[in-house]
Amino acid sequence: MERIIAKELLSIGAVFLRPEHPFTWASGIKSPIYCDNRLTLSAPAVREQVEAGLAELVRQHHPECEMLMGTSTAGIAHAAITATLLNLPMGYVRGEAKSHGRTNRIEGKMDPGTKVVVIEDLISTGGSAIEVVEALREEGAQVLGIVSIFTYGMRKSVERLAAANVVNHSLSNLDTLVEVAAEEGYITADWKARILQFRENPSDESWIK
User: 122 forms bridges with which residues in the sheet?
Assistant: First the structure.
């Protein structure tokens, strides 16, 4: 599954590998890779595989799940489709509470004690996903874990998730993706090594040569 999803993400251009012209993330980190899993929504065949994969991860790792919660905004559509496949209720967590109406941050009816799985499209540093988990816990949810499409596997995210006592399961990951990308000619073997070097220490820009 990891290789299949990696191939599909590359085939539709959802993953941009541009080591010669690095991207700048919101944090200011320069990166040779940018992942836009929103593009899977407009590719029906890929979308079908992604949602079926997310549903299988929930079944396999969290069979007791009672509700799916999407992260805003990228995880909402994936949570909705996956919830339909699993015949589960779903909702989503806003980046911040609304300033009007009921001032909700969590949308959808969720009773205290509900066993919830968070659906996320991408795990980079892990910060946004953990904010969602904490918001759900504050409202009384029993968060079983996170299920995501892709993870960079950064040390910072691994440490943050562990500290927050939450586990993530992803359909694919950076190690698999760069292996497939090198095999299929998207990048050279040298750039495969440099991209992994970036992942191990994002603040060290020595890979940009």
Answer: 150
Measured distance CA(14)–CA(16) in Å, rounded = 6
Tokens representing 56 are 């299988």
pLDDT in tens, 112-145: 999 999 999 999 989 999 999 999 999 999 999 9
Q: How far is the C-alpha of 39 from the C-alpha of 19, rounded, in Å?
A: 21
Cα separations in angstroms, 23 against 63, 171, 183, 189: 38, 24, 23, 20
Give me the residue label for tokens 């040569």: 209
Q: Does the predicted TM-score (pTM) go above 0.90?
A: yes
The list of the chain residues with pLDDT below 70 reads 95-103, 209
